[in-house]
Amino acid sequence: VSDALGQITRTQTQQAIATERVSTLRRATTNASLLFRSGLASYLEVITAQSNALQSELELASLKRDQLGANVELYRAVGGGWQ
Question: Is 66 a domain residue?
């Protein structure tokens, strides 16, 4: 049970950090697009920012999956089962 609770706590912390990272990288994508439109950045910088934002969103989705798995493990650890 304590392992499952620890895993839930860790994934919640990681998820909060990843959520902030996604938000930051989305803003970076917006900024890169604005810079590109004003001629101060290349298109490569825009697509690099987009790629970074998408990668962080994939990481967040993976962490959410891990969180759900940890919840299932906790449920099983306290005696829950499938009906």
Answer: yes
Asked if residue 9 is part of any domain, the answer here is: yes
> Which range of residues forms the domain containing residue 29?
2-77
The pLDDT-based confidence of 4 (bands split at 50, 70, 90) is confident
Question: Over 80: is that where the pLDDT of 15 sits?
Answer: yes
Model pLDDT, residue 17: 98
In a domain, 67, yes or no: yes
> Around 29, how many Cα atoms within 13 Å sit in the side-chain half-sphere?
17
- d(CA 16, CA 29) in angstroms, rounded, equals 20
Dihedral class, residue 79 (left if φ above 0, else alpha if ψ from -120 to 50, else beta): left
Contact assessment for residue 53 and residue 18, using Cβ atoms and an 8 Å cutoff: no
